[in-house]
Design goal:
The protein is α+β, with helices and mostly antiparallel strands and 390 residues long. Helix content is 48%, strand content 15%. The protein contains 12 helices and 16 strands. A hairpin with a 2-residue loop joins strand 10 and strand 11.
């Protein structure tokens, strides 16, 4: 293998490795490829761990977008915080959760270590981005310092802020404006490295032309780095995050520079609930389908709803779930949809369907039984007069 071939193998390996990302299983991934609309995806439950799953993003990142929205992985109540939530729309069930319950009066120190929120030396929550972890830490710290009578109102305000769909839409528009020219420079760098350089190497005098090829590549990587730095500062202001590190990688590593738009979009939906993100990006039918899954799960989550016997934790989880369910229904109603209509039972697929799961919509030929996928939730019989799907 020649040195040029070895170089391209290394560059391609680095480039392809960046396509694979580990994402928290309690996150929702919003994907759009070139000339296609947005769709919902989930991290793999097979590849990864019980808490994180592998997701393969667009292999040509300048021609597609991937955004991640993560709901709170903890339950809050006026009495304390419990590092557990019962709700999930992941097709393979909720992620592994084994965090502690922390009464507000016992909280002393909250710090952020990269993407982890650490409370009094114990890992309380893990986020998909450092910006999200910082936001959670600030919320927990403010609740711990607040007067007990004010905490309920603070939690509800924070929930409503996470469900601010206009804000999510504004962020998406701001990102599109800030990254428009950056995306085209990334495309130019991609074409130069993986098309122009190999063609010259195969058909032309490489010795004479390599200084020009190298100069063009360095010019493109520096342009990407500068445009990324400017766009990141425009979108996120003083919150630098990984701005300096990513800018340095764009200058020194062309494969990283090609994925600059991915790095720019990672913190975009920080603090936004997946339902608000879906409403901002998907069409009306896509939003309705996801809203149905969210509302059904909120009304009847996977059993057992809570895996603890600690009364304080049970109370916190139940209190938070009931308040969140009410806010989710209010959000759907404010978008012109009736939650009762959105969640009404689907008609049977054919004459063999006798019952259905009220959470996941799976249909069964049994008249009685349980849905093992949802933790043995009892099945509901179809009405004899229910129409068949045409």
């Amino acid at each position: 293998m020649s040195e040029a071939q070895l170089f391209y193998c290394v560059v391609l390996a680095i480039y392809l490795s960046e396509c694979a990302t580990l994402v928290r299983r309690d996150s929702v991934i919003l994907v759009a490829t070139w000339l296609s609309s947005w769709r919902i995806a989930y991290p793999s439950g097979l590849l990864g761990s019980e808490a994180r799953g592998l997701f393969l993003s667009n292999p040509v990142p300048p021609l597609g977008e991937t955004l991640v929205a993560q709901a709170w992985p903890f339950s809050l109540s006026p009495e304390g915080a419990y590092a557990y939530v019962a709700l999930t729309t992941h097709p393979e069930g909720r992620a592994a959760q084994d965090g502690p319950f922390l009464p507000w009066g016992a909280v002393r120190n909250i710090v952020v270590d990269e993407k982890r929120v650490i409370v009094d030396g114990t890992v309380f929550a893990r986020a998909d981005s450092a910006a999200t972890a910082r936001g959670w830490a600030e919320l927990l710290s403010s609740l711990a310092k607040a007067h007990p009578a004010d905490r309920e109102d603070m939690i509800l305000r924070a929930l409503r802020k996470s469900l601010d769909a206009p804000d999510a839409a504004r962020r998406r528009t701001a990102f599109a404006d800030a990254s428009r020219w950056l995306r085209w420079v990334c495309v130019a760098l991609l074409v130069h490295v993986f098309a122009v350089c190999p063609l010259v190497w195969i058909n032309g005098p490489v010795i004479q032309l390599w200084p020009i090829l190298a100069l063009v590549m360095f010019a493109l990587t520096w342009t990407v780095a500068l445009m990324f730095f400017r766009a990141h500062r425009e979108l996120y202001g003083a919150v630098s995050g990984d701005r300096g590190m990513v800018t340095f990688m764009c200058v020194t590593m062309p494969p990283e520079a090609m994925r600059a738009c991915d790095y720019l979009s990672r913190p975009l939906l920080e603090g936004v609930h997946p339902l608000a993100a879906v409403h901002a990006l998907l069409d009306a039918e896509g939003f309705r389908k996801y809203a149905r899954a969210v509302l059904l799960d909120a009304r009847q989550p996977i059993r057992p709803e809570c895996r603890t016997d600690l009364p304080e934790a049970l109370q916190a989880e139940g209190w938070y779930r009931s308040r969140l369910a009410a806010e989710l229904e209010a959000f759907v109603r404010a978008r012109g949809l009736d939650p009762a209509d959105v969640t009404k039972p689907l008609p049977p697929r054919d004459s063999t369907s006798k019952s259905y799961c009220p959470r996941c919509d799976a249909q069964y030929a049994l008249t009685d039984g349980v849905c093992s996928t949802c933790g043995d939730i009892p099945l509901v019989r179809f009405e004899d007069s229910a129409p068949l799907i045409a």
